[in-house]
Records
---
Amino acid sequence: MTANKKPLALWILDGGALALILVALAVILFFTPADADMGAVQKVFYFHVASAWVGMLGFLVGTAAAIIFLVKGETRRDALSVSAIEIGLVFSLIATAAGMIWAKPIWGTWWTWDARLTTMAIMVLLYAAYFVLRAGIEDKEKRRRIAAVYAIVGFISVPLTFFSIRVYRSIHPLVIGAGAGAFLSPRMVPAFIISLAAFTILFISLLWERTRLEEKLNRGKGEE
Amino acid sequence: MDTTIYASVGFVVILVGIAAYVISLIARSNKNR
């Protein structure tokens, strides 16, 4: 069917995301110095932060789409919301796993109940429960409305996680905003910016792909 | 302290995680073709 044909722009976006990830990897591995204290493991930080950024961006887009869905009642906004939240959850889990691997040699433990780690764990569990909630409601209209309200309320956990290291005492490094300079030397900044750009393009590409899939699933179930 | 092994595992976890999600998208898409 022509309506389901993948747009050329999406092919280009997919290829661009892959190419940028490879460029970011090359810059991190071959053109960025290793941290004097932490050694090679500090390099995980670039993709760890980029993954966490995509996680929070996914929840933000998912919440915005949920609000628009509640106001306008358009099914495609619900498809966008569930897609963005799924990507947000996947990347939050990836960021958490990468952070744990970094923490083992640096903090001497895989996990500690620090403010950032605790709020991150709460956020991940809240959004994992979003999918349990969706799976448990059969009526499509009710499911979409309740999921949208849950997504909006659950979003409270996102700024709480982001600002946790600024508000509470935390051992987690601060890399964005005031007081962040100490963690990154000027020669590390390009790798950081390229990683953020690569993961942002990847997010847009995945979101487009996932939303198309959700709309296809809805059509298949007759739930448009 | 040599942290190269942790760096290697970290990158593998991130890249395999992303690849696994992309494969899941392709599989779900093909299933509902």
---
Amino acid sequence: MQAVGYLLQIEAQKAHGGVRDLYARSAFNRYYYGVFLDIRRMFAGLDPGWATLAHKAYPEVLDGKLTKKFKEARRKATKAGDFELVDIIEAAIRASAALAKLMERAYGIRVVADYLPEELVQFSGAGRFSLKSIDITEAHNWEVDVALWVKSIQSAWKQLHA
Amino acid sequence: MREIDLLSTQIRENGVVLVGDLVRDATIENKYYAFVQVTRRADGAQNPTNYKLRTISDIIERLGAELIFVLIEDDRQDVLVNTKAVLIRNFPEKIRNVFPTFGSRGVVVWIEPKGILPAHDLEAMRSTAEDFLGFLKFSLEDVHVTSSENLPTKTACLNAVRFMAPVKLNDLRVELVRRDFHIPSDEWLSHTLDKLRKTDYVVRSKSGAYSLTLLGLRSLGSGKNRRSPDVVRALAMAKRGA
């Protein structure tokens, strides 16, 4: 998805006319799906029941059920004096919140890209463009942020459930 | 007046600058996305504040709709890119990579170290990031180190002992590796188990096998679901023919 998004981003930078807008909004769409699929893969590894969740449920699970489980584990780890684990869990709690926020942000812009063609992509110099003031460079970088936070969550989960 | 215009007016009347109209979610009824232009005051505080945005969300919720704010800061990406560059430039021997992101109160920096990071190095990195962001009128929310060591924590070791007990060091090492942990050496594992023994979490029999004490069992707790460690252990014992 990330590769396809990047290809569309490059094509949008090169293209002229109305097709330029279509390439550009499709790039946002693919970058969103890249985020979605990375988190879905993570969810499937944590709990098979989370593998088939709808898009809208992702921020809810990250901010809700998953964070609740980590907070409960943090309480136990604190009680047991395992402060190394407490640190790992705290990082995972922050990662879950950050991932939920990113998912909402990415989903919001994906809705604009897919359903509001009247909201035109704004092209600026140096081949950059944005939709609703969200720069394509930011969307391109979502993958790196997601990988970092997913790793943090998986690391805590493994310490608790391996 | 359309509902979407009504909500937009409500938000604008609270002094929030919207980037275009609200966006209605395509699949969820009464859910909207508001793209909000965010600025920084001279002291670096965000405008509008998160408190104000939460208050507006609550008002909209009482009107029967859900509102998600997407914050837009023009220099947002530049701040992150430059924070990363400053840290990597200042600590090239110690940092493999830096991942700065925006948290709820400022910039959160995640550092991937090249090796084990002593506390004074981490403090120096925190101070560098703080100074740089302060210069840009942003605040540093926190600095975290990503763990690349993948060593089992005390709880992970106790979990494995509970699963295998009574278990000898070599078998425990095999089990922990099977669980995808890195064990630097038998000496490291022996030292870890020794610490657990001295703090009364495990006991070591004359034959050299480790088991949990009551304190160890209590610290792990149990569960009433399919992941219950007692069920997992019973199944494992049945499998081993114990």
---
Amino acid sequence: MDSHGCQPTFADCSVLDAVTVGRRLSAAHLLFHTVVAELIGISASDYKCLRLIDRAERPISAGEFAARTRLSTGAVTGVIDRLEQAGLVSRVRDAHDRRRVLIEVPPDGAARLAAIFDSLRRSILAMEADFTADELRTVRTYLVRSVTILHRETERLSSVHSCGGRGR
Amino acid sequence: MTTVEPPAGADRAALDETAARLVELGRDLAAATMAFHTEVADQLGLSVTDHKCLDLIQRANGELTAGRIAEISCLSTGTVTGVIDRLERAGFVRRARDRRDRRKVFVRLVSPPPGELMSYFAGLSRRMEVAASRYEAGELHAIETYVREMLAALRIETTHIRDGVTSPGTG
């Protein structure tokens, strides 16, 4: 058999495998975070909000929080109340503008979260030790591209949504 | 993977930094994936969990029982019953009894699969394939191995946490 025709090449197979495996990875991530939320004892949506606050580069105001989550300010107050009760976030006054209230993850809350993620973090770091620096760089560019594509596709979907694509 | 010579000094530090950045990137990927799935689920009027189970059913070609879905998804059987109820009401799946063993109930995708559902993923798959096609076979192999191992690590960790939650006297 020659290489003409429709026989998939090795590279073609790998492209498809990379996409399939990416889908499985997304499912595994979702399940991981589902059990983490269960472990902390908060709902999946409160947990998503907590991750947003935890990953923000600085403490954010309730207003910013509402904008980022697309939740109403009323719903946001409820989420922050529940997370505060669980000791996972705290409300602090902005040092520059005393009228502004910022939300942050307090040190003991951050330590609790870090402890849960630490075991996963360590096993991933151990697994990475088997790769060469070049291989890790390749993986890195691939993951960066994947994240960019996901963001763009999410935006595309949400713009269809808000233009009344489904008439909601 | 290829044999790795232990690098020293500055090389070691640079490699450690790349490795640590990759862990962060893994979290970014999870957040971006979650946002995408939330958006799709939102448009279908489903919760993220419902949507994820639908994805499982879709990939299993109709041979999944409710019990097996609970097993794969790490969700309780009670939760899975609720998920299937909602998916059935929304017209995505139906329950079908096994002809040989009437006690066994399979969850099958309603055919033809809702075009709407497929169209959400078509664009993403196409763009992901284009991105992947920029790499050589050896590079793709490294990416695939990396992702597979990350997947294994996530599954082990999920099981540990779940068992910690469900078994009394731990944590």
